[in-house]
Amino acid sequence: MAYTERNGDRVGFTIVGVVNDFHFEDLHLPITPYAFTLNESDNYNYMVAHAKAGELGTVLKSIEASWQKLNPGEPFEYSFLDEEFQKNYQAENRLSTIVGYFTFIAILICCLGLFGLASFNAEQRTKEIGIRKVLGASVGSVAVLVARDFFKLVFIAIVIASPLAWYVMTKWLQGFAYKTQIGWTVFLITTLAALLITLFTVGFQSIKAALMNPVKSLRSE
User: Are 169 and 180 spatial neighbours (Cβ–Cβ below 8 Å)?
Assistant: First the structure.
């Protein structure tokens, strides 16, 4: 026997079974006690039904007919439990979509900026590249020379941005009762992705500058 307060009165219930803890609210909140009680009155205003995915139309018609017999004064309205539960995370879904769009735009702007800087840098160092090639520098060494400064800037940006990203994500996750931990692999993957994007963006201009005819490069000056 269990007792609880209801409308100021102490009410007793006979416990007929216990189930494992389960989430009946969104994951922002911890699991709290919950009880199923038997409704012995004739006043029904909602019900929960489980049906197979391929039989929804037939099941809904059958439930509606039974509903009208049991409670003709109440309109028959229904919703799907998974959709109702997903509404708890509409804010997170919108935030994820917005962050995704802004991330794509930021990466595109960064690529355009790196490409433009690489082109300008190669043009400004045309004579230097020509002299190095005349003195025996290989294409690979010249390409590395042109791209090296950009990788330094990207690495500095990663060092500055990683702690800020960790702090922001940690504060956001604190809003959930059940959350994951941010591991170092996340930052390793983002670092490799940033370096690869830089390599593809700057590499073209670096190789183009390294393959330039040194005679034409010196004449252009």
Answer: no
Contacts of 72 (CB under 8 A, 6+ apart): none
Q: Are 10 and 3 in contact (CB under 8 A)?
A: yes
CA-wise closest residue to 6 among 37, 44, 48: 37
- Contact criterion met (CB below 8 Å) for 207 and 214: no
DSSP lists the bridge partners of residue 13 as 2
Confidence of residue 54 (pLDDT cuts 50, 70, 90): confident
Within 10 A of 139 (CB to CB), how many other CB atoms are there? Answer: 14
Residue 115 CB-density burial (10 A; 0-12 exposed, 13-18 middle, 19+ buried): middle
Q: What is the spatial distance between Cα 210 and Cα 217, in angstroms, rounded to a whole number? A: 11
Find tokens 């037939």 and name the residue: 58
**Could you tell me the CA-to-CA distances from 60 to 49, 68, 76, 79, 86 in Å, in that order?**
10, 12, 10, 11, 21
Determine the Cα–Cα distance for residues 208 and 202; give it in Å rounded to an integer.
10
Query: Tens of pLDDT along 63-120?
Result: 888 888 877 777 888 888 778 777 777 878 888 889 889 989 988 888 888 888 877 7
**Two structure tokens written together for 132:** 């190095």
User: What is this structure's pTM?
Assistant: 0.60
Helices then strands, each counted (H, E), the chain: 7, 2
